[in-house]
Amino acid sequence: MDLPPLHRQFLDDVLPRIQREAGVVGVAASGSLASGNPDIYSDIDLIIVIDEMSFEPVMTRRLELIGSWTDLVAGFTGEHVGEPRLIITLVGPPLLHVDFKFVRLTDFAERSEDPHILWERDEELSRALAQQPAKASRLDLQWIEDRFWTWVHYGATKLGRGELLEVAGFLAYLREAVLGPLAAVRAGRRHAACGGWSRWLPTRPVHCGRP
Q1: How far is CA 27 from CA 81, 92, 104, 142, in A?
Q2: Least enclosed by CB within 10 Å: which of 69, 113, 164, 188?
Q3: How many CA atoms lie less than 13 Å away from 50 in the CB half-sphere?
Q4: What is the tens place of the pLDDT at every residue in 140-183?
Q5: Which domains does the chain have, with CATH numbers?
């Protein structure tokens, strides 16, 4: 796996420490590391796979464990993104954004894309993935159609009132919920992984006022 030096050094340091935790049966990477296109600005998305008996005790000690694995600057749980198993951290220096998602071995195979296995005990992660194929999520076009024009009207009222910061926030949401996913589908990419879409989106000329 081709990684920037900072990311490589982090993994070289942290993986041996994670392996010493008895309840951990494997570590995998998702996101840009799994897709093979990380750059120096990429964060690291780690999946820490725990055996069934150790899962609950580990969940109560997540920040403590992470602090024993690396130099933890800040960390908090991911309820705000709908994933309470996630710990979002800043580690370093040098500073690096690392997400640690703790999952049961029985839940590891439930996925929309294949992660990259960094380390596993007795090939348990490989067997779990082999037994259950990834299920790519599909973009619900009707869901978008049912909401889009109401959203546009809402944004137009904010623009008419001169509430430019609200308009900026609305456009950012529209990019995440509609434009980015649609562009990903158009480009043949998974819409769930459309981060950084401005880098890969095909360009085409736009002629305003013409069909």
Answers
A1: 22, 20, 12, 37
A2: 188
A3: 21
A4: 999 999 999 999 999 999 999 999 999 999 999 998 889 888 88
A5: 5-131 (3.30.460.10), 141-200 (no CATH)
